[in-house]
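Re-run with default settings, no changes from the original entry. Doing this only to confirm the output is reproducible before filing.
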Amino acid sequence: MTTQTVRIVNVDEVEPNRRRGGELRVTLGPATVGCTSGFMGLAIIEPGEMITEHYHPYSEEFIHVITGELEVDLDGVTYELRPDQGLMVPKNMRHRFRNVGRAQARMVFQIAPLAPRPELGHVDTEGIEPAETVGVDS
């Protein structure tokens, strides 16, 4: 029998990543729990915010919406995402998430397998737009 280290990670323990918009917090990943097969976390997207378009050349992304009203663009086609819905984004598919509601949106994401090196995991196809250009009324 092997001894394994178990670590419970609270979302408030990890620094938010805001490079692509929204607030991404990787709670379970190589840096937090030493995993080697993928990573998981919480995306917090305020009304009018978005996570900019990108794709993963090595990984699939699994999404589960907890709260809020989101739209996701998958290779240029828009779909609605609501609480209790899940989505799998295949490798190499461009995707962008927008909060189109009036309340904060929260979604759990999991990406696997890991890219050979962290800098190869995401390919950005656009930069962050100011919230006022996203199209949500104040």
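The chain has a mean pLDDT of 91. Residues 15 and 43 are 12 Å apart (CA to CA).
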